[in-house]
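Exercise 7. Given the encoded structure of a 372-residue chain, write a plausible sequence.
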């Protein structure tokens, strides 16, 4: 298996599982060999799509010698027991987010993976996005000065989440912070380092019985003074589903659009060197100067600092990028990165089991604080 074919088995295959499988199977050296754990119509369609003859019992599939790696695409409450079962059977594991429902479960899974020298990773594919890379370099280089504040607003659709869907059942999903928020806790941690939840709250849908937790909000502190607000609401029609992520700096702000960001807008004041740096960070971007300043007007102040400003600008990058196409690229990149480690442990992965554990830990604190 070191340099040969990686034989993939999947546990659970609803609509998203099929979407991910279609991209995982395109990675050179990956062959889908088995499917288990679900009898939904979508799973039978997926089996037909890939030529899998039978949807098996989970235990039977994990006993097979011709399965090397297992992709777990079931609801969150099944991630821990199914990952532990797969790891104990000697399989590598890629798990949908969140890694588990609790930090204790995640730690048990990580310990088992380390003991057996097996891959364990959650599908936190956002860090493979070139948009994320460019924003990370912008933060680290200080092109727009110090980072001051951030927001992520997720106005998500519940159109395909009927009242009986497992998403609303906290015993199965863990709640919105845990089921969905981990993606964005991990993304900001990649840019700013570890964060600490300082406040959190939730809102219930009026009149719903049993209660439906339909939106949550928290504030996370990074470093000594950087505050980021996270809002997740599942209350929109599908055609109004939208997301916006904004980072505010001393010299301007950067806005990312969609939950898999493809478009970037920069609004800033900059001197000549900073303008050049922005164009290098976002190659091919459209740059429009909305104001230019004569030498006598270049000096201005903010945060009791004197700034030298040549122009005010609007930079747009990623217009026309297809979101689903980008999403597929990220899934293929994640699989290729993880398989490189399976074949050679000296390979440094972009996402590891620790990312799944750390993002879950932040989500659990936010959830506990909101419910308190």
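Solution.
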């Amino acid at each position: 298996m070191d340099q040969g074919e990686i034989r993939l088995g999947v546990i659970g295959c609803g609509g998203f599982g099929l979407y991910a499988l279609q991209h995982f199977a395109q990675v050179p050296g990956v062959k889908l060999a088995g499917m288990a754990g679900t009898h939904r119509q979508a799973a039978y369609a997926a089996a037909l799509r890939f030529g899998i003859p039978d949807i098996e019992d989970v235990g039977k599939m994990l006993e097979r010698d011709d399965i090397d790696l297992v992709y777990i695409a079931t609801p969150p409450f099944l991630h821990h027991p199914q990952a532990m079962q797969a790891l104990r059977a000697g399989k590598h594991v890629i798990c949908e987010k969140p890694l588990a429902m609790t930090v204790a479960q995640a730690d048990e899974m990580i310990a088992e993976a380390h003991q057996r020298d097996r891959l364990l990773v959650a599908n936190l594919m956002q860090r493979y996005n070139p948009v994320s890379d460019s924003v990370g370099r912008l933060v680290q280089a200080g092109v727009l000065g110090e980072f001051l504040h951030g927001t992520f607003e997720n106005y998500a659709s519940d159109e395909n989440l009927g009242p009986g869907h497992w998403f609303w059942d906290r015993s199965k999903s863990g709640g919105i912070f845990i089921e969905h928020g981990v993606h964005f806790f991990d993304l900001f941690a990649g840019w700013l380092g570890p964060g600490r939840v300082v406040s959190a709250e939730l809102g219930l849908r009026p009149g719903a019985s049993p209660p439906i937790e339909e939106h949550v909000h928290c504030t996370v502190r990074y470093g000594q003074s950087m505050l980021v607000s996270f809002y997740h609401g599942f209350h929109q029609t599908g055609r109004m589903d939208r997301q916006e992520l904004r980072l505010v700096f001393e010299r301007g702000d950067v806005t990312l659009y969609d939950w898999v960001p493809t478009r970037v807008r920069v609004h800033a004041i900059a001197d000549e060197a900073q303008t050049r740096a922005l164009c290098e960070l976002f190659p091919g971007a459209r740059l429009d100067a909305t104001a230019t300043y004569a030498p006598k007007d270049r000096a201005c102040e903010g945060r009791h600092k004197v700034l030298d400003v040549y122009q005010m600008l609007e930079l747009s990058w990623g217009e026309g990028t297809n979101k689903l196409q980008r999403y597929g690229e990220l899934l293929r990149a994640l699989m290729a990165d993880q398989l490189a480690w399976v074949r050679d442990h000296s390979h440094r992965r972009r996402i590891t089991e620790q990312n799944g554990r750390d993002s879950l830990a932040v989500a659990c604190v936010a959830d506990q604080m909101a419910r308190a």
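Remark. The chain has a mean pLDDT of 94. Students should compare their own answers with the one above.
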